[in-house]
Amino acid sequence: MILPEAIKELIQKGAIFYVSHSGGKDSQAMYSNLCKVIPPEQLVVIHASLGEVEWPGVIDHIKRYVIHPPHIVSAGKSFLGMVEKRGMWPSAAYRQCTSDLKRGPIFKCIRADLKARGATIAVNCMGIRAEESNARAKKNPFSLNKMQSCKTRDVWDWLPIFDLSTEQVFQTIQDAGEEPFWAYADGNERLSCVFCIMGSKNDLCHGARQNPELYRKYVELEKKIGHTIFMKGKTSIPLEEYTGISADTNLRR
Predict the structure, then answer these.
(1) Which of 106, 88, 117 is closest to 27 using CA atoms?
(2) Confidence (pTM)
């Protein structure tokens, strides 16, 4: 992994590199690469736990392959509770799940850890890749986070594996002698919430079969609040219709 000059300078200045680790393939590959180039005492792993809506076993998977004890953070509220209170599911345009349940707790942890260390420079490392979407391809892989920076703190956002392909990500994991989270081998294309609003139909169907109790909760909540996760134009598409899987069916294999 070739480091940009700006990153080399930040290492010299004692910056702390905070690795946002979801347990997914991109986070795993990113951490593996960073361990080769960042001094170990300047690396911190953070996992924003999504509770019951994230894949079971994710935290154990993270702990299995990191040498830095992960900081497990949460927002103090649940995703489904948040949806019920608002009466609406998040959307691509309004991703409250990301801002409230991931970004908020992660930056709170970063600020507290910096203060405890007496450090003033943080680098927020995220496993976002250009290949994932046109929107992500337009992102700046290294930039100052103006909202989190202040007179006593500089916070930078860095995308260390921005240019890697999916094939290269899996190869990085394999080269490290590791395995990706089991859901990939069993059919998942990406890993986030089990029923992510950005997930493919394939991932949603796989999630329903592997997590029938949670699937039922999503289906019942759609009916309760009168709002569906997915829309086609202005037409609501219930989750059961979208996946073609009934919540009343015994789905566990």
Answers:
(1) 106
(2) 0.93
